[in-house]
Amino acid sequence: MSDAPSQVTAPPAPAAPGDSEFDRDTTVRTREAGVHEVRLSPGWAIGKALNGGYLLAVLGRALRQALPHPDPFTITAHYLTATVAGPATIRTDVARSGRTVSTASAGLFQKDADGTEAERIRVLATYGDLDALSDDVRTSARPPAMPPREQCFSATDHPGGDAAVPEMGHRLDLRLDPETCGWALGAPSLRGEMRAWLALADGRDPDPLSLLMAVDALPPTGFDLGLTGWVPTVELTVHVRARPAPGPLRVAITTRNLAGGFLEEDAEIWDSADRLVAQSRQLARA
Amino acid sequence: MSDAPSQVTAPPAPAAPGDSEFDRDTTVRTREAGVHEVRLSPGWAIGKALNGGYLLAVLGRALRQALPHPDPFTITAHYLTATVAGPATIRTDVARSGRTVSTASAGLFQKDADGTEAERIRVLATYGDLDALSDDVRTSARPPAMPPREQCFSATDHPGGDAAVPEMGHRLDLRLDPETCGWALGAPSLRGEMRAWLALADGRDPDPLSLLMAVDALPPTGFDLGLTGWVPTVELTVHVRARPAPGPLRVAITTRNLAGGFLEEDAEIWDSADRLVAQSRQLARA
Question: Residues in domain Acyl-CoA thioesterase-like C-terminal (chains A, B) (predicted)?
Fold first, then answer.
């Protein structure tokens, strides 16, 4: 074996946490206590809007810098007005710092065209330390039944070609379960389900902050219910239940109740060790 | 038929919204814009602590007074420190008032023994008008399979007698599904389920505010998992999906994942017209 050919053909090394697209695009600079500056990346857009999960991860990172505990145990975001790429200010307000958990609010603000500051998102979260939790697991939850990654559909299989893939799709290695992508061929299952294997495109492994993005990264379950329009999120709550093991995640989303023009999306995320690492629910407009 | 006997034997007329224990005990006086005074009633205690659902209803009422829309579409509470009966101040902060929905934060504060003010609960909510929603319902959710009320267990059936019934139990007409109260006889099902018929004891019909209480009114699912200790709520999110029809509610709660000392409780509330009127999830400490 010679060195040269393997050097040429070797895939790029996976990005490490701290040195990846996701980390660069969620960088938060704390200007003073409670005031944080960010530059939101256009790389996480779906159509004209930035993805709500990406924005939640940015807010989650600001809260991590404002609180004594590192991990979001439970975080809720209310989306007020559309957030665009570019500069934004996050203001954090600590409600309580306890021994094992701490709680804070945050708001993300951008300047409108006339220079006035408008609040885009308001968040409320409780942080703790996932590594300090006991190893006790007594769960009746089981990972979703899904084909292996190689048998799932990636963005490059999209019948509309690369132009049909939203910008955020290039940040992700997303492989949809064939059973939940009939909608892309005009034949939704009408069960309100969406399942996928999910990793970051540059190979960075998941962590609690990237889970906040991952719960909102799949196509809306509305597509599988035969809805074609956009499904804007009103509110999204994520519980991070364990630190994810390295490797691709499985994300399973279900909608039970579409009524009065609103629907809920319940997501579960499973890591490569078959552990339920996050649960989320969002209320969205159909 | 004579009038006199029927006057003697007639049951008391059911309380109407606005004139019931629940309405009196959630009364909020707005002192100035954004500042509201309440007197929390000891009638909603479970042990020494006031019930988190009752407190959420009080905060929900303050937010209704602070916002242009009447109904909580989605509301999240983080419980910081134990709330006791007596006076409290609620401060509300409106994030955005839109045409169809409006969003605000709120904090509930009480004075500690040394006179300093401590925040007990912080809330984030989006309100709208349930009556303005379309009648469209496309749901795969089905009401829980439960025996009729008469075959369920009420507080008066408690093997420990009336003394074992928490104070809040006297505000409610709660009838537990026999399948989910084996724990009271030392034989929990270990499935993590709790189901009950629920009404207010004085006969007042449910409304969106009382649903905020109802999602947290049953014994914890932890009892059905064989846990015996208290299960304090860290965070509770409620989606009110429709205005409930008059009559008793059915509440079904499940826990899938008890891990690392935390568990989630997912509740669904169904009204007498078989409509899913509320969904909630809470994160609690085991």
Answer: 154-284
